[in-house]
Each structure stands twice: as C-alpha cells, then as structure tokens.
Amino acid sequence: MTIQALSRMSGNNEIAAKNQCYLLDKDGLITKERKNLDPAAAPFAKDIKDAEGLKEGASLLEVVKKLRPHVLLGLSGVGGIFNEQVLRAMRESDSPKPAIFSMSNPTMNAECNAADAFKHAGPNIVFASGSPF
C-alpha cells in the first residue's frame, strides 16, 4: 500500500516509489546480497550500488543516520525498536515534519510510544500508532 501511495504521489511511477523505500528486518537492511531472501521482500531489496553506501544488514540507526528519512513506518512487531538513538537521529530528517508511524500491536510490540517519539525526535513530528496509548 505504501508503494501504491508513493507511486500516485510521484506521477504513477512505481519504480521511483520503490527506490524511495528501504526495507529492514531483524537482520537489518535488505539488499539483493541477502542470502535466503524472502520472496515477499525481494521487490524491495536494494542493489548494493543503489544503497547510498549502506551495506547488507545495516542497522536501523545506520540507515536513519545515512538517509535522513521523511518517514519511519514500523510494522515489525518488535517493541521499542524505535529507541532513543533512532528517534534522536530522526531530528536530522530532511523533512521539516518527519513522520513516525509505530503501527505494531499489541501495545507491548509497538516500535515506540508517542511520548518517547516527541521527547526524542522533537515537537515537529507527525506521530501515529496502531496501539491505544
């Protein structure tokens, strides 16, 4: 759904939309170098030459610091993965209003909560969650 929305925003260019998305899992950044690449992740795997100097398995913190994303979309089910360091790194986003979407449920699996997001990423963020905090 994210790719569809980005595609519409960029003039129905699905390739451009996919190029803006970086997918990470429990092992970090997913690139085409990944062994045993999940077929569902394959369309989002970055060619290492297009990964902005990031390597296979780069951590979330490394990716946020390097790419300065506009949006963090949390669908991991890993509670607290948007930790203080990651949220502070979002202060350097290229967006004047970076978005942090902590969508995992139940609440104990949320990537972060609103209080921590605003405390560490700053007051100018857009926050949404899938949990009732």
UniProtKB/TrEMBL annotation:
<dbReference type="Pfam" id="PF03949">
    <property type="entry name" value="Malic_M"/>
</dbReference>
<dbReference type="GO" id="GO:0051287">
    <property type="term" value="F:NAD binding"/>
</dbReference>
<dbReference type="GO" id="GO:0005739">
    <property type="term" value="C:mitochondrion"/>
</dbReference>
<dbReference type="GO" id="GO:0004471">
    <property type="term" value="F:malate dehydrogenase (decarboxylating) (NAD+) activity"/>
</dbReference>
<feature type="domain" description="Malic enzyme NAD-binding">
    <location>
        <begin position="2"/>
        <end position="133"/>
    </location>
</feature>
<dbReference type="InterPro" id="IPR036291">
    <property type="entry name" value="NAD(P)-bd_dom_sf"/>
</dbReference>
<dbReference type="GO" id="GO:0006108">
    <property type="term" value="P:malate metabolic process"/>
</dbReference>
<protein>
    <recommendedName>
        <fullName>Malic enzyme NAD-binding domain-containing protein</fullName>
    </recommendedName>
</protein>
<dbReference type="InterPro" id="IPR012302">
    <property type="entry name" value="Malic_NAD-bd"/>
</dbReference>
